[in-house]
Structure formats: structure tokens, C-alpha cells
Amino acid sequence: MAEQMSWGNNSNCEFLNKKCVNNGETKFPDMFCTTKSGDNPNIPAGLQCTSDRQSLGTCSSIEAKKTVDNLAEHFQYFSENNKVGSEESEQMDYCPIIMAKKGYSCINGEQRNKMPGSLIVNNSRCVEGNELKTIKDEAAVGAVCVEVSCKFNKVIVRYSGNDKWHSCPEGKNLTVNGSVLKGEIVCPKYADVCNTINKTLDELQGPQKDPDPVKEVQTSQPEVTETTGTPKPTENAGNQGVTSPVVQNEAITTTESKPSETKEGRITSSVSGQNNNSTAKKGADGSFKASLFASVMFVFLTLSMIMLP
Known about the structure:
Blueprint: H1 14-17, E1 48-49, E2 55-59, E3 62-63, E4 83-84, E5 98-105, E6 124-134, E7 143-149, E8 156-158, E9 166-167, E10 173-177, E11 181-186, H2 190-194, H3 199-205, E12 244-248, E13 251-255, H4 258-306
Antiparallel strand pairs: 1-2, 2-5, 3-4, 6-7, 6-11, 7-8, 8-9, 10-11, 12-13
Keywords: Cell adhesion, Disulfide bond, Glycoprotein, Hydrolase, Membrane, Metal-binding, Metalloprotease, Protease, Signal, Transmembrane, Transmembrane helix, Zinc, Zymogen
GO cellular component, one term: cytoplasm
Cofactor: Zn(2+)
């Protein structure tokens, strides 16, 4: 399986078509550097993160033995006449990069006393600091090694002087709160640190619980009326002619909107009409029977009188 490399990943076309550094400035600070050792007083010994974040190192820009006039123009990156990006290496176009210092590995560095505030363990990776200082002597720390876990699909870190794990979202600064350092660390990209860590060790030594678990959101339940025990309607209930129960003097009445009243009126009229028709039919049937009975009695009486002697 090919090694996953984050260096240059997701960079635009300028990364290939333009100069890596132009007049001492770069658009790709994760790949190239512009500050050599000792140039920046806020970075002790120029310690910065290598591109793979596995070591602390320094910028490769050097004082050239000969002026940059001897280099092609597209290899000239600084305004100073005696400053070049790196030693003679056409493979890197003489671009200045962070070179790992011997013994400054975040995983098993031997120069721990020269790596202030760094936590040296198997899954440690380098992160940049923001106004990061040691508490003991207020010494500025440019970059520092922190233990990294990639469980729960995110970057989680643990730094020197604090045994707790802390979520470190990409693009955010994490305030350091411990006994060794103060200030902030800049949270790295997930791919920069998680593609190379030992996942087996991470499962064994990483956090057992998510430092920032997602809280369950409780859905609101409808209120229940005291008398009926039925859920109360929402505020918008009844906007479309829906009836809503209202308790009045221990009895349930119904408030209805105009559409319901019209519908009820139609239903009532229809029912009343059917009742009237039934009554009329019953009256007609009764009158017919009475007339028939009277006719039969009249014929019977007439025949009786005729038959008398």
C-alpha cells in the first residue's frame, strides 16, 4: 500500500506553476518556510514542525557562500543578496523547507531537554504554538510535540503538564491549561496527523470516551389537560378549521373556526331536512290509512241498511 502524503495535498495550481517563495513570502506555509534559525525571537532556535509533523526542525534557508546572482532568477526567493532557500538541490528548486534536527523526533527524541514543553511518546506529533510559553521561565515555544489520538473521527490531543484529552478541531486554537505551558496550540488538519499514527496503539492508549460527547436533545412532549388527560393542541391548531377542546365547568366544549361552523350548519340543515321529509312521509301514510278505513266503514253501513227488512 502506498504511503499517504499530506505534503502538497489539495494545493492549487500555483503550487506547481508559481515560485514557492516570492520576495520572502510564501502562500504555502505548511510546505515552505521563510524564517531561518534565530530570525524570529518568538521561536526558540527556530524550532518548527516538519511537513510530516513527526519532528521539530529548522528552516533550511541559509547564508550562501556566493550571491544569489549566480542562481537563475526563478530560484531567487529573498531580497537579501546572500540568502538562498536551501543548499544546492535542483530537485527542490532550492526552496526553503523545514529540515528535521537530529534527536528532535516527537516519537523518540533524544534531545528532550532542548524541546521545551514537548510530550515525547509513540503517537506524538508536532503542532504550532500561538504565544506559547513555558510557565517556569516564560521562554517562548514556537512548536511543540503533543500526543495525538484520532478516535471518534476527530483530532484529540494531550499535552505536557495535563493528563486529560482535549478535542482539537481543525482551524481552531486550543488554550493550554497545565503545569508546563501556557498560551495556545494551533489545531492541525486531520489528514496531517491521523494518516501516519499507529492506530493499534491509538486504540489501546487513546481516550476511552469522547472528550466532547454529543448531548441528547429531548423532544418536547405536549402538555396534558388536567380534566381530560388529552394533549393540549399547539398554538397553530385550529387555523385550518380544526377544533380544540376547552374545559369549562368540568365539561368539554368545542371552539371552532368559521369553516367548521359552515360545515356543521350544512350538516345540521341536511339532517333537519331528512327529518322533515320522514315526518311528512309518516303523516301522509297515516292520512291514507284513515281515509281507507272511513271508506270501508261507509260501505259496510250502507250494505247493512239495504239488507234490513
